[in-house]
Amino acid sequence: MAERQTPPTRYYDDLVKGFPSMEGKTVFITGCTSGTGLVLAKTCGSLGAHVVMLNRPSPRADAALKAMTDAGYDAVLVPCDLSRFASVRAAGAALRERYAASGCDVLCNNAGIMGMPDEATVDGFDTQMQSNHLSHFLLTHETWPLLETAARLRGEARVVNHSSGARNQPKRPLMARHLQAYGGKLGGDRFPGIAKWVRYQQSKLANLLFTYALHERASQRPGNRVKALCAHPGPTDSGLQAKTTATRTSGFIDRILIRRVLKDPNSVEDGTSGIARCCCEPGLESGTFYGPVTMGKHGPAVLMPEERDPSAESMLWDESLKATGVTKFFG
């Protein structure tokens, strides 16, 4: 079989040319050792932002930080393992201490894992749901005071979540069980292996619904200037797929699905366009969603139609509070 060619970058370079300076701003990014997270980190760094790389400690995290600093960007690494709530809380405490005075202008909840086995984290939750949504919910709570500080000092702050086209593939409503401590009991890994993709779909749908739920609740707070936005990358060969096919439960169907998804993909840079717009572009409204509008095909990040589900948003909020042990999200 012929080796898959790296797709060309069609949109990103022109997009970035239109972004203003981010001098004086601080950007927190999860999952930025590679892929869209690292592209975003480099973009924000090139625009003059101070970039906080929230990654699980690893040689890859160290290498990503070195790539940033070698390029002359202002970046630091703060350990944050999204598979453990204790690590997220520790990262939150470190961030609140270090950035109490200056705040955080952008929190980009970018990190994600895909197609993982049906296993529980140490906290009892599905590995994909905890890493992709629940820990980001907790991190947003932990850093909310910093977002409010930046908004007070510089006019606004943003929470940016990263969803996926898989939020509707397969088409399933959000199920409370997937947000509860049923890790390892959510369909298993037996042939044909569809359950792992349902678990992934649930986590990426949660990313979008969390954005809407956060927007609704934050906008009701007097004087709120913290925006909630979301993006999806479209089909993007970011390296996430390779990690999926390397798992012990990966099979023939996984490889077929991934080849189909990546038939006409974005480059990693173009796949970053949505979160880059949400993080860097002035004038975007809270509660909006950006990404390629054509399913399964490369394209620029544009404003997407709303995909609201108030009942599911409310359920997600309540279950996420219970799962993370947060009693007052906004402090």
Element layout with pairings:
Layout: H1 12-17, E1 26-30, H2 35-46, E2 50-55, H3 59-70, E3 75-79, H4 85-98, E4 106-109, H5 127-154, E5 157-162, H6 194-219, E6 226-231, H7 240-245, H8 252-261, H9 268-271, H10 273-280, E7 289-291, E8 302-303, H11 310-324
Helix pairs in contact: 4-5, 5-6, 5-11, 6-11
Overview of the structural elements:
The protein has 331 residues and is an alpha/beta fold. It has one domain (13-322): NAD(P)-binding Rossmann-like Domain (Rossmann fold, 3-Layer(aba) Sandwich). It is built from eleven helices and eight strands. The protein has helices at 12-17, 35-46, 59-70, 85-98, 127-154, 194-219, 240-245, 252-261, 268-271, 273-280, 310-324, and strands at residues 26-30, 50-55, 75-79, 106-109, 157-162, 226-231, 289-291, 302-303. It has an eight-stranded mixed beta sheet with strand order 3-2-1-4-5-6-7-8, with helices on both faces. Helix 4 runs parallel beside helix 5 (127-154), helix 5 packs parallel to helix 6 and helix 5 (127-154) crosses helix 11 (310-324). It is globular and about 50 Å long. It starts with 11 loop residues before the first helix and ends in a 7-residue tail after the last helix.
